[in-house]
Amino acid sequence: MLKFRLFQIPVDIRPSFLIIAAIIGFRPGTNISQILAWIGLVFVSILIHELGHALTARAFGSQVSIELNAIGGLTSWTVPAEEYGPGRRALVAAAGSALGVFFGGVVWVIAYFTGPFTGMTEFVVRNLIFVNVFWGLLNWLPIRPLDGGHLLQSLLEKIAPNRGDRIANVIFFATAAAAFGLSLWTRQFFITVLAAWLLVGELSRGRVRIQRAPTPQMSFDDPPSEVGSDVESDPTDS
Q1: Where are the domains of the chain?
Q2: CA-to-CA distance for 220 and 190, rounded, in angstroms?
Q3: What is the pLDDT of residues 186-209, one digit of tens each?
């Protein structure tokens, strides 16, 4: 595992991150140079995204760390989430994609005034814009555990504290199902697998165990051995 510090923030990179990035970047006809370039630009883009979370959380007094792994990126902070309040949690959740979209926009502006490009440069610039802008906006969708899911939960905690979890569960299930159907229709294999995983998670969380009432049972006591057996007999009676 590769470790370094960026802006005094510990960053860990697991080998699974590089493997998954390479799998996503593989397309028929791509060469090794393009795959390596893809891994590099995905690394930069996701690191920028996580820096958005980390720097915002640190501004609120947390000690933070970043990990890049098979499912993307993860920013951890020391202050419990419940101590932040919904407003600050929403800002931390939104900051990652906001910084990524901003970076993608800067790349687009530079490319607009300095392009057009060809070859490897065109490949890198085009995908830098795509990954930062498209993936960043995608991350704002109200799907758990994406940033949009945290944003939705923070909003519902404010406006509907008593019913927030129930409303969020319905929305998360609907958006995960829609993402699965759309990715399946567009033949996006990796996104289909990811959406299916999210959908199964929502089904597991939302499973309602119905406890059936016991079936009424009719029971009968055994009849007495003889009528009037509970009356003592008189031995003198003939």
Answers
A1: 1-140, 142-205
A2: 63
A3: 777 767 777 787 777 777 765 533
